[in-house]
C-alpha cells in the first residue's frame, strides 16, 4: 500500500517541489507504527540549502494537507537533499556532478575513477587518467561521487573545458586550434 500511495502522491508533490524551483529526486512512503512516513528527496542545480529545504517542506506540507484524503491518517513529513553518496542514475545527476570526481562501475569491465565533464543526452564525458572518454549511461552499473577535500587540479578542469568546446579528440589529446 505505501508504494501505491507514493504513486498517487507523486504528481501533487512533484508539482509543489517544481513550483519551489527544485526537482523531485525521490518520494517514499512507509508505515511507521500508526503513522505514515512520507520522505521527499529534492535537488537543485546548485544543491539545496537548509532554508530551501524548509521552504519546500512547507510547500509540500500544504499540498499534502490539501490532499489528506489520499493519505487517510496521521503522517510525518521528511524533506531532505539526496546527499553526496547518492548514485548518479540520470542525466541530471551527471550534469550536476560536472567537474566532480566519480567512481564508476561499468556493466562490463573494470571499475575506474574519473572527473565528470559535459553530460549529454545518452552519455557523459569523463576524464580518466589524462584521457577524456565518453561514458554511456546505459553502460554504467553504478556511479557515485568521490569526496574530495581539496580543489581539483587546474589542468584537469582545463582539459574538460577544452573538450566541451570541441578542442579535444577522444583518446588523442588536445586538438590544434585552426587559424
TrEMBL record:
What is this protein's function? Required for maturation of 30S ribosomal subunits.
Record-annotated membrane-spanning stretches: none
Instruction: Print the keywords alphabetically.
Output: Cytoplasm, Ribosome biogenesis
Keyword Cytoplasm listed? The answer is: yes
Please tell me where this protein is predominantly located.
cytoplasm
Q: Specify the domain of life of the species encoding this protein.
A: Bacteria
HAMAP family referenced in this protein's UniProt entry, alphabetically:
RimP
* Cross-referenced Pfam families: DUF150_C, RimP_N
Q: Pinpoint the Ribosome maturation factor RimP N-terminal domain residues.
A: 13-85
Q: Where in the cell is it found?
A: Cytoplasm
- Of which family is this protein a member? Belongs to the RimP family.
Q: Which PANTHER family match?
A: RIBOSOME MATURATION FACTOR RIMP
The Ribosome maturation factor RimP C-terminal domain is annotated at 88-149
Report whether Kinase shows up as a keyword of the record. Answer: no
Q: What is this protein called?
A: Ribosome maturation factor RimP
Organism of origin: Prauserella endophytica
